[in-house]
Specification:
about 90 residues, mainly beta, ATP Synthase, domain 1, 5-stranded mixed β-barrel
Length: about 90
């Protein structure tokens, strides 16, 4: 993540459960885990769909990190927007 410290690049993130919007806003990065291992989503990321598990780390525009434990979810990255659907 050190490459992002001086970068102004961000992308929009939505995290939703069936009941509530868990998070919505611009972020510098997202870290999670799928069956292959831990990975990051960064600004300008390729379009991507994955089943995710274990956790989300949201790296906000101010340098903070918010960690959310999850069971499973679906992550879709499309044109500099990431959407995560939890509770599937």
């Amino acid at each position: 993540m050190s490459l992002l410290k001086n970068s102004n690049l961000t992308f929009h993130l939505f995290v939703r459960s069936p009941e509530v919007v868990v998070f919505e806003g611009d972020v510098k990065a997202l870290t999670s885990e799928n069956e292959v291992g831990v990975f990051d989503v960064l600004p300008l990321h390729e379009n991507f769909i994955s089943v995710i598990q274990s956790f989300l780390k949201i790296h906000d525009v101010n340098g903070g990190v918010r960690e959310i434990e999850i069971d499973k979810g679906i992550l879709e990255v499309w044109q500099d927007t990431a959407e995560i659907y939890l509770g599937i």
